[in-house]
Amino acid sequence: MSLRTTLSCLVAALAAAVGAPAAGQVSAPPSEFGDDLPKELVGVDIIENLDRTLPLDTVFTDDAGRTIALRDLFDGERPVLLQMGYFRCPMLCNLVLNGMVKALGEVDWNAGDKFRVVSVSVNPEERHELAAAKKQGYLVEYARPGVSDGWHFLVGPEASSRALADAVGFGFRPQPDGEIAHAAAIFVITPDGRVSRYLYGTKYDPSNLRLALLEASEGRIGSSWDRFILWCHVYDPDAGGYVLFAMRLMQLGGVVTLLVLGVGVGGMWWREWRSRRSSQTAAVSAGGTT
Length: 290
Description:
- This protein folds into 2 domains: 3-241, 3-Layer(aba) Sandwich (Glutaredoxin); 245-290.
- It is 41% helix and 18% strand.
- It has helices spanning 3-18, 92-104, 128-142, 158-168, 206-217, 224-231, 246-288, and strands at 26-27, 46-47, 59-62, 67-69, 80-85, 116-121, 151-155, 172-174, 180-182, 185-189, 195-200, 233-236, 241-244.
- It starts with a helix and ends with a helix.
């Protein structure tokens, strides 16, 4: 890998790790180059296209050598965690995949059960044999039983990968030495194929990842407690993750206060009613004995 390509990868990784951009904004490389951005890095960024529908009819080849349409990986029930890069990537893609697997290892849901994972190569020269080898390596690292059918590694023609990359706003640029410069992010997709959330960098907080998958599923996965936790949080682009939503906590506090008051007033009313009833009963009993 050349020095320029190494620098490109490092700059792209730093750009993604600095922080998530607001919706519709561009996550550009840092300004250490000033206004003289190397042409190799032009377009290497992330543009958020929240709620954009993926090109589900786009055709790829999966790690088993089968020709599939992207929509074959969406069942309308489970969200999809999408990772884009290329399988011969010497550095950044591996960092993204390693960070994703580490975070998934701390989430108690298994790929293929509550969600699916899809890794797509943007290098049209890569073939399904390489995808299969890459998959086997990461299945070993993920070390969860029965997830082979829940994690798909795809290759395909340039038109397919470019269409998908454009839909999620994943900017990449081939380099003169054959490498590909790109930013670092993973994408959370709804069960019907819409972009739900962007998670940036090469390290991912497991709780953020879990909440993002739950949010994308619109409550289809997870427990009632999970949905309650999500209700109490909101995604903060500046923080790059989910934070407690003060208004929701105030609403919850108001409900709890009303319940406590209701129980207290109800208890007082009940005791007063019992006291009156006892007095009336005593009076009747006294009148009957005279």
